[in-house]
Amino acid sequence: MNQTGRRDHLKGVGDERVFLCAEWRHLAMLNYEVDARLLLPFVPSGTEIDCWQGKVFVSLVGFRFLKTKVFGLASIPLHANFDEVNLRFYVRRQEGNEVRRGVVFVREIVPRRAIAFVARTFYHENYVCMPMEHDIRPIAESNWKVEYRWRCDRNWAGISLETEGNAALPAEGSREQFITEHYWGYAAQPDGGCVEYRVEHPSWKVWRVRQSAFEGDAEKLYGKELAAALRGKPDSAFLAEGSAVSVMRGRKL
């Protein structure tokens, strides 16, 4: 979505309250093409699966969550900066003449129990708390090596990548633009309803990736069928630079 499109997208939502503001940095994104039928149990009411050129993707995403504030207040000690890894897919919803393109999270991993509790309480998002660590370092000029790891029971799992070339804004209509520019979140609710919330950030530059990997047993987190998809080679992978973000208060549809 170009900047004019983003301004149009924000019309009529200026009275929203900001729930959370933070910075999301070094977003490592591994993207897998899957059969849409695998995702149907997770699709929130009122939304439908969004496709890129007829392809349906899930993305395994690791990133740094920094300078976090909730309702404008500084986070409690040790909760402002942390890692997150999530498995997500893409949906769309019609609101009048507007098509709202959004993200649904299958599972989100963070290292702090209080963070997981707040997310589950306000949005009924599927957060879990696990020990996590990261390794982010520059290599060869403007490139990066990025790794996020988490421990499930006694076993470690992780995603990693190495970039090549220079970062640039995604081309219009590209897969990278499709994946990074979904500005809504949708969360299924226990009563069968859905909460919708807006996520505001500028377009992100991305790096191409020369190698990427996911290692670990994903079945406990994502179920047998999705775990099988993650064992294959990603359809694509890239690193997004990230930015400051604002997550608005949700509303029930």
Features:
14% helix, Acetoacetate decarboxylase-like, 253 residues, 5 helices, disordered N terminus, mainly beta
CATH architecture: Beta Barrel
Number of helical runs? 5
**Structural classification:** mainly beta
Number-wise, the strands total 15
User: Mind telling me the C-alpha Rg?
Assistant: 17 Å
Number of separate domains: 1
- How is the largest sheet built, in terms of strand order? 1-3-5-6-11-12-14
Quaternary structure:
single chain
Uncertain runs: 1-14
Mean pLDDT: 90
**What is the first-to-last residue Cα distance?**
24 Å
Q: What's the level 1 CATH class?
A: Mainly Beta
General form = globular
Give a verbal description of the structure.
The protein has 253 residues and is mainly β. The protein has a single domain, classed as Acetoacetate decarboxylase-like. Helix content is 14%, strand content 53%. The protein is built from five helices and 15 strands.
Helix and strand arrangement:
Elements: H1 3-10, E1 18-33, E2 48-49, E3 57-70, E4 73-74, E5 82-95, E6 98-110, H2 113-123, E7 127-129, E8 132-139, E9 143-152, E10 155-168, H3 175-180, E11 184-188, E12 194-200, E13 206-215, H4 219-222, H5 224-230, E14 236-248, E15 251-252
Parallel strand pairs: 6-7, 6-11
Antiparallel strand pairs: 1-3, 1-14, 2-5, 3-4, 3-5, 5-6, 8-9, 9-10, 10-13, 11-12, 12-14, 12-15, 13-14
In short:
14% of the residues lie in helices and 53% in strands.
